[in-house]
Write a structure and sequence with these properties.
alpha+beta, six-stranded mixed beta sheet, three-stranded mixed beta sheet, 4 helices, 19% helix
């Protein structure tokens, strides 16, 4: 009996992923089950984020706010950010292929390590301009902005107003974190 090696673990593709029941993410061919369903607190915070994003982006003709949707990064990587803002026209209705400009991930016990580690690195590598990790238990959001290919922490927001400067929109968008708790 030998030791299990990473290269011996079966990997999957998008074609496999679309056949799976329930909610999954696929990162570098490895499946991650999104279960159990998010707790009420998680959903409440995510809904408040979506509502506020919808209002602040309603006059921007180039950007749109999305709830969880498949972002197919490659044939072996598909993720579902909790809340995102895209500033491009998707090529189809099933998934997006280009990096969102803003992503919010609301932490839950089952996904926190993945959101703060694997997805942090993935979003940084893929060029997501703003990545916000929201902790509904601690009532804090860690706000990162991509600069020279690396995430720089802007702030730990609790009741702050943070400005999102997107080239696609004419004005700077101000997000009030006091309204999500």
């Amino acid at each position: 009996m030998g030791v299990l090696k990473l290269e011996e673990i079966e990997t999957y593709t998008y074609d496999d992923y679309v056949k799976w029941k329930d909610r999954w993410e696929l990162i570098d061919g490895y499946p991650y089950m999104m279960a159990p369903m998010p707790m009420i607190k998680h959903q409440r915070v995510s809904n408040k984020i979506a509502r506020q994003l919808d209002v602040i982006f309603e006059d921007c003709t180039k950007c749109q706010v999305l709830l969880p949707i498949d972002w197919k990064i490659s044939n072996d990587t598909v993720v579902q950010p909790d809340n995102s803002v895209i500033c491009h026209k998707p090529l189809n209705e099933a998934y997006i292929t280009k990096a969102p400009r803003i992503i919010f991930e609301v932490l839950s016990k089952s996904t926190a390590k993945k959101d703060m580690g694997i997805k942090f690195n993935l979003y940084e590598k893929e060029g997501v301009l703003y990545y916000i990790i929201v902790d509904p238990d601690e009532l804090i959001a860690k706000v990162y902005r991509l600069k020279d290919g690396k995430y720089i922490k802007i702030c730990d927001a609790t009741d702050e107003v943070v400005e999102f400067d997107l080239n696609e929109c004419k004005e700077i968008k101000k997000f009030d974190f006091s309204k999500i708790w």
